[in-house]
Sequence to fold (763 residues):
Amino acid sequence: MLKFVLALGLGLALRAQGPGLELSELDFGRPIDDWFIFDLDGDSWREVLVFHDPDPDGRPFSLAHRAGDAWTIERGSIPRSVVSLALGRFGLGDGYQLALIHPDHVDFLARDGGGALAVVGPRLDFTNLIRSPLAGVPGFWHWPTDIDGDGHDDLFLPGDDGLVLHFGDGAGGFSPPLLLGMAGSRRVTRDSAGHLDFLRSYPRPVFSDLDADGRRDLAWFDSEGLTAWMQRKARVFDAEKPLTFKLPWLASLDSDGILEQTEVDLRDVDGDGRPDLFLSRMSTPATGLGDLRTTLVVLLNRPEEFFARRPDFALKVQGVIGNGPDFRDVDGDGALDLVYGSYGAGISDALQRMMGTVKVAFRIHRGTPKAASPFELQPSRLLDLDLSKDDFGRWGARRNFAVGTDLDGDGIGDLFRMADAGGGRHRLLVFKGGRKKDGELVFADEASASLDAGTFETLSLRSMRPGASTDLVLIRERSLGLVTFR
Amino acid sequence: MNRDRRPGFSALLVFEIRKFAARPMPWCLLAAIVGVTLLLGLIRRAEDTGGESYELFAHLIARTLPFTAFVAMILGSLAVNHEVGAGSMRALLLRPVRRREIVLAKALLLAVFALLSGLTALFAAWAFTATVSDFGAVMITIEGLEPREVIPAAEMAELTRKLGLATLLPLLTAACFGLLISVLLESEGSAVATAIVGYLAMQVLGTTLPGAEAWLFPNHLHTALGHLDELAGQVIAHLAEVRDLGPTSAACLVPLAEALLFVLVAVAVFEKRKLPC
Fold:
C-alpha cells in the first residue's frame, strides 16, 4: 500500500523590492536538501518542489505552487521504497503527473481539483525489479519525454538487459514493455541482510531525434563512443546493429576513465532541429605549471552524414570551463551563440587564489549558422570577473551564467554581479545588455537594477514560465528567494 | 678624453661603450642566452613531450627573455653605484662633464644592450626551432578527428613578429629601472636586491590588482609571452588584441614611457645627489 501523506498549508511568501527587481521569499520552514522547478499542473507557471532530509517515514517534501500572486505550500512525504521519480504528461489528469518509481511498480501523482497532490490512475507494474537507485534518490530519472512522437509522454525504466520502454497512450494507459538492449555493467553487491546480489548499471540514456523524423532515437555514450538505436517507425527500432560513432580521444584509448574527463552531449547548436555532437575535454599541456586547457569540439549533424570526422568547430580555451558551455541566443540576433566561463589558467590563477580571488573569464562567440563554422572562432565579447573564493563556489555551477542570461526579458543577455555587502550579505546588481549598430553585445556601465539579496548558500537561474525572462533563485538554508526583473 | 675641454655626449657614449665592452659580463650574458636556449631546446627534444614549431619557440623564449630582463635590470642596478663605490665616477666628475649626460649615456647603452640581448634570445630560439621543426599554421589536433587550422602560417608569422617587438621593449624598461635603482642606492647589494624585489612585486601586483597589469612593465613582458604561448597552444582568446599590436599600441608605448620616466628621474636624482668625491 502506498504510504503517502499529504498536508496542505500556506507558506510564508514575503516580498521585497529594489530598484527594478522584486524578491519573493518562499519559506519552507525546515532545511532544504534538494530542489526542482517544473510545471506540475499545466498552467504554464512552474512549481517549486523541495526535498528535506529523510526521516523514518520517508522523504519529506514541500511543493510550492502559485495561486495568483500568492504562493501555496503543500507538504507530503515520499515513501522510502521509492527509488526515483519521473515527470510527464501521461494523461492521468490535467498537466503533468509525478511518477514515483518503486522497485516493482510505478505510482502516479497529480494535483486534483482542490490542488492537493493525490495518487491517480492505476499503478504500472513491471517485472524487472529495480534494486538500485537510478540517478540518486529521489532524483529524477527523466523529465517529460515523448519517445514515439505521438504527442503523449512515455516512460522508460532500466531492466536486466537494457532499457524498458512503456509508451503512454495519453489516457493513463501504457503499451506492453519494449526492451532495448544497452551495453551496461554488472557488479556483485551485498544487501543489508548480507545477501549477494547483482547490480546492473547503464550509461545515461539520451532520447534524441538524430534523423529528424519526429521520433526520438535512443543514444548513449560509453567507452565505445556514441551508440544509438534508431527508431525508424513509431515504436519500431532498428533490428540491425545500432549506429555507432567512435568519439575523438577514444580512437586509441590508452587510459582508463577517459570518458569521465570528457563532457559529451547531443545538442542542437545551429538551430536546424537536428541534435549535433558536442564535446569538451580538459587537458594539461606539457609546458606551464598548472596551465590547464579545455578543448571544445562541435560536429554538426547533417542529413547526408550524421557526424563527419572533420570538426565543424574546434576551440581551445585556457583553463577549466566552470560555467557552461552553453548554446543560447545571447545577442538577440536569432542565432545560437556559444557562451562559457573558464577559470584556473596558470600561475596567475594560483596567485589570485592565494589572495582569495578567482578570476572567471567569460567568453561569447557569436553564432554564424549560415557560415561554414557554426560560431565565430574569435570571441566577440571577453569579460573577466573577479569573484571571491566563496562567491565562486556559490555560482560555480555549470549553468549559472552571470554573463549573458536574459534577466529583463528583452531578448538580449544581461550581466549580474553579487557585490559583497558585508556580514555574508550580498547586493545584486544587474547591468543591462544591449546591441550596438553592428550587432555587438554590450553591457551598461551603470547598474540598471539592484537589490539586497541577503545571505544565501548558492544561486541558480530558472525561468518560472516558458518564454518568460529568467529569475534568479537564491537558495538559502530554509527558503528560496526568487528574484524577478520588473 | 681631453681633461680641459668639455666632452660631447657622443664622446661620453663612446667612453661608456669602451668600458662596457671591456667587461666580460655582457659577453658572458649573450653567450649564456644562446647556451641556455640550446640546452632548454635539447632537453625539450629529449623529453619527447611534443612541442613543435611555435610551441617550442614560445617555450624557449618564455624562459630566456625573463632571464634576459633580470640580467639587464641587474646590470642597470650596478651601472652608477658600482663606479661610485670604485671611485671611477669621482675621476669622471673631476672633468667638465654634465652629470645628466653621464646618466643618459649609460641609459642609452643599457637600453641598446637590453634590446641586443632580447634579439639574441629571440634569434637563438628561432634558429634552434627552425632546425628541428617548420613554422607552419597553427592547427588544433584532436585525436580521432582531422586537424583544424585556426591560424594560417602567414598570419602566425606576422603575429609572432608583433609579439617579438612587444617582448623587447619591457627589457629596455627593465634596464632603465635598474639604472634608477643604482642612482638611488649606493650599496650594490641593496640595489640588486631592491631591483629584483621591485620587479617581482610589480609582477605580483599586476596579476592580482585589477587594472594594474596595464601599467607595470614586467607584466607587459609576461603578457606578450603569455599571448604567444596561447597562440602556439591553439588558444585564440586574445587574437584580436595581438592583431591590434603596433608601435602606437599601449603594449609598446607604456614600457617606452616608463623607461623614459625612469631615466628622467634618475637624471634628476643624480643631478642633486651628493657623491663621496
